[in-house]
Each structure stands twice: as structure tokens, then as C-alpha cells.
Amino acid sequence: MAAKIRLKRFGTKNRIQWRIVVSDTRMPRDGRFIEEIGSYDPLPKEEKFQVNETRLEYWLKQGAQVSTALKSLLKRAKKKAKKAAAAR
């Protein structure tokens, strides 16, 4: 079974939110998933992005592939964290 770490959409029409899930590559975007490891809410002024780093690392070690959209979100989150650490 090939696993993929990707975004799963939920919420209402004008209030979209995303969950970060690990799922089988054969499942649809909003279909069954193996594990939920985080969430992403793009609408507040300061977008909320939370991910369980230990579970993310575990799934990456198991061979799961990260989707391109999630890859860019992770990159942006690392950049913000680095910038916040430099400001201290």
C-alpha cells in the first residue's frame, strides 16, 4: 500500500478548512484516511497551521509521499518559525 500525506477539505462553502491526513493513494481527496496528523485554516489574518511533527516524521520514514500543496505549506511554516526565532 502506497501512502500519501495530503490535505482533506472540510467546512462550509465560504469557510473552508483543511485537515492534514495520511491516506492510501487510491482513495479520493475527501475519502477514507489512515490517520489525521494536523490541520490548516487559511482564513484568519494569521493562518492557523498545526501538524504533529513526530507523526509526520514517522510516516515519512515509512515511505509516505507529501503532496505538493502540503510541501509548500510545510516550507512556509518552517520559514515563519525561523523568522520568529531570529526576532527573539
Structural key phrases:
88 residues; alpha+beta; S16 Ribosomal Protein, Chain: A; five-stranded mixed beta sheet; 2 helices; 5 strands; 33% helix
How would you characterize the largest beta sheet? 5 strands, mixed
CATH architecture: 2-Layer Sandwich
CATH class, named Alpha Beta
Structural class: alpha+beta
Q: If helices are DSSP runs of H or I spanning 4 or more residues, what is the number of helices?
A: 2
Domain module count: 1
Across the major sheet, the strand order is 4-3-2-1-5
Report the sheet-strand fraction: 35-45%
Helix content: 25-40%
- Distance between the first and last residues' Cα: 44 Å
As for the CATH topology, it is S16 Ribosomal Protein, Chain: A
3D shape: flat
N-to-C series of helices and strands: EEEEHEH
Low-confidence stretches: none
